C-alpha cells in the first residue's frame, strides 16, 4: 500500500472495525465490570490484560483500546497509557522509572507543574532533580551522573518557546548513559508536528486536553512508549490506579480526525498574527518557533514538520501595572486563561519577575513585558484588530 499522508492517517486512526461495529466511529463502552462466562475466559483475560483484552473497566474498554491503538500508531510507539490529565501523564511517567536515591535531569524551561512535582514530591522521595538550559545540546553529557535515571525534555518550552537540539541531546545521553530513560512533553506538537520516538526518545507525553481534544471541554493525558519502556510504564499506571473515562477518551479520538485541518488553520493564522506583531514598534521580539527570532529556530526547521497557534512575544519596555491591566482587560477575542489548543484565542501576560520565578537555569530575560498567546480559529484579521486596540490602550 502507498504510504499515506498525515491528513489521511488522522482520518483513519482509531477506526479499526473491531471497535466500530459497522459504524463510522468506535463505540463508547461504559463498564466497570467485565463478565466472564467460563473459567477459561477469565483466565485468558487475566493473562492478556495488558494487550487490549477486556479485563476490568479501570484497565480500559473497547473505546480506550481504539484510541490507544490510534496514538501508538500516530507516535510510532509500542503502546499507549492514558491518564486523567496531562499533568498526571507527566508525574506518573516519571514515577514509573525512579527509586529513592536516584537523580533526574529536567529542562529548566519545563511546564511549571512539572517543575513543582519534581521540587515538592520527588524531593520527599529522596530523588534529586537538576535543571538544565533548554539550549544545552550535547553539553547535557556533563550533567549526567551514574544514578541519572531520567532526562525530561519539552520542546518548544512552555511560555519562552526555546527549542532543544534533540538529536544532540539524545546522542550524548545514548553514548554516555544508554540506560537513562529519555522523556519529552510533546504537547505542543500534538503528536503530529514532531515524532520523538523516531529520534530515539523513549516516551512521548502529551496533554490531550490541548490540540487533540481541541474544543476546551475535557481533560486527558497520554504517554506513548517504545518497546523498552511500555511494560514498566503500563504496570506502574495500574499500580497507581490511573484511569480515564470512556466518554473523555472518545472525545479525544474524535478530535484526531480534524486535527490536521485545525492545526493548519492555527498555523496559518498564528503566522499572520506573529508577523503583524513583528512589525509593531512596541514589540522587541516574537518567540514563534517558525520565526528566526525564536531561540533554537534552526532545530525547529530541521526536526518539526510545522507550527501551530501557540507562541509568545515581548515588548521593548516594561508596562506599568495600570498599562498591564489596560492591555489585558478589554480584549474582545483574546481572553485570559490557562491552557490552549482549543478553537478560541487566549492570552497571558508576564512581567520579568514572573518569568524568573518559572525558570531554573541561568535565564536572563529583558525587562519588557511578555505575553503568551494562543491564536484560535477566529479570522486572523479580527484578532489583529483586537491586538491593535490593546496597543492603543497603552
Ligand atoms: C497543559 C499542559 C500540560 C498539562 O496538561 P493538563 O491536561 O492540563 O493536565 C502539560 N504540558 C504542557 C506543555 C501543557 O501545556
Q: Which labels suit this protein?
A:
Aspartate Aminotransferase, domain 2, 15% strand, 13 helices, 394 residues, seven-stranded mixed beta sheet, five-stranded mixed beta sheet, binds pyridoxal-5'-phosphate, 12 strands, alpha/beta, globular, 38% helix, Aspartate Aminotransferase, domain 1, single chain
Task: Tell me about this structure.
- The structure is a single chain.
- With 394 residues, this protein is an alpha/beta fold.
- The chain has 2 domains: 4-253, Aspartate Aminotransferase, domain 2 (3-Layer(aba) Sandwich), CATH 3.40.640; 258-390, Aspartate Aminotransferase, domain 1, CATH 3.90.1150.10.
- It is 38% helix and 15% strand.
- The chain is built from 13 helices and 12 strands.
- The chain has helices at 6-12, 17-20, 39-47, 62-74, 86-95, 112-122, 166-176, 227-239, 246-279, 297-303, 321-329, 352-357, 380-393; strands at residues 79-83, 103-107, 128-132, 148-154, 181-185, 203-207, 221-225, 283-287, 310-315, 335-336, 346-350, 370-374.
- The strands form 2 sheets. It has a 7-stranded mixed sheet with strand order 1-7-6-5-4-2-3, sandwiched between helices. The protein has a 5-stranded mixed sheet with strand order 8-9-12-11-10.
- α9 crosses α13 (380-393).
- The radius of gyration is 22 Å and the shape is globular.
- The mean pLDDT is 97.
- It binds pyridoxal-5'-phosphate (PLP).
- The site of pyridoxal-5'-phosphate has 13 residues, from α5.
Amino acid at each position: 500500500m502507498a504510504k499515506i499522508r498525515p491528513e489521511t492517517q488522522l482520518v483513519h486512526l482509531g477506526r479499526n472495525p473491531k471497535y466500530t461495529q459497522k459504524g463510522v466511529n468506535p463505540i463508547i463502552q461504559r463498564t466497570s465490570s467485565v463478565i466472564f462466562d467460563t473459567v477459561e475466559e477469565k483466565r485468558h483475560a487475566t493473562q492478556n490484560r495488558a494487550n487490549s483484552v477486556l479485563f476490568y473497566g479501570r484497565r480500559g474498554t473497547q473505546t480506550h483500546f481504539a484510541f490507544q491503538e490510534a496514538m501508538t500508531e500516530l507516535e510510532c510507539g509500542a503502546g499507549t497509557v492514558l491518564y486523567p490529565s496531562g499533568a498526571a501523564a507527566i508525574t506518573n511517567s516519571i514515577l514509573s522509572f525512579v527509586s529513592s536515591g536516584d537523580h533526574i535531569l529536567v529542562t529548566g524551561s519545563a511546564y511549571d507543574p512539572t517543575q513543582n512535582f519534581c521540587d515538592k514530591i520527588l524531593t520527599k522521595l529522596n530523588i534529586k532533580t537538576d535543571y538544565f538550559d533548554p539550549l544545552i545540546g550535547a553539553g547535557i553529557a556533563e550533567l549526567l551522573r551514574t544514578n541519572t535515571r531520567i532526562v525530561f525534555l519539552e520542546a518548544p518550552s512552555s511560555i519562552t518557546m526555546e527549542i532543544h537540539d534533540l538529536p544532540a541531546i539524545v546522542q550524548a545521553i545514548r553514548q554516555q548513559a544508554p540506560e537513562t530513560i529519555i522523556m519529552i512533553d510533546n504537547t505542543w506538537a500534538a503528536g503530529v508536528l514532531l515524532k520523538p520516538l523516531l529520534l530515539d526518545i523513549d516516551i512521548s507525553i502529551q496533554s490531550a486536553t490541548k490540540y487533540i481534544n481541541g474544543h476546551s471541554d475535557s481533560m486527558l493525558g497520554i504517554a506513548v512508549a517504545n518497546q523498552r519502556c511500555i511494560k514498566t510504564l503500563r504496570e506502574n499506571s495500574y499500580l497507581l490506579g490511573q484511569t480515564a473515562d470512556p466518554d473523555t477518551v472518545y472525545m479525544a479520538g474524535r478530535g484526531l480526525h480534524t486535527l490536521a485541518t485545525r492545526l493548519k488553520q492555527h498555523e496559518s493564522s498564528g503566522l499572520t498574527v506573529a508577523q503583524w506583531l513583528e512589525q509593531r514598534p512596541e514589540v522587541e521580539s516574537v518567540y514563534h518557533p517558525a520565526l528566526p527570532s525564536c531561540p533554537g529556530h534552526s532545530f525547529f526547521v530541521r526536526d518539526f514538520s510545522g507550527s501551530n497557534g501557540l507562541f509568545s512575544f515581548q515588548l521593548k519596555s516594561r508596562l506599568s501595572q495600570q498599562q498591564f491591566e489596560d492591555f489585558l482587560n478589554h480584549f474582545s477575542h483574546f481572553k485570559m486563561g490557562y491552557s490552549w489548543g482549543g478553537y478560541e484565542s487566549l492570552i497571558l501576560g508576564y512581567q520579568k519577575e514572573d518569568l524568573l520565578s518559572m525558570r531554573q537555569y541561568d535565564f536572563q530575560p529583558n525587562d519588557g513585558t511578555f505575553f503568551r498567546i494562543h491564536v484560535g480559529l477566529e479570522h486572523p484579521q479580527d484578532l489583529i484588530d483586537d491586538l491593535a486596540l490593546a496597543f492603543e490602550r497603552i
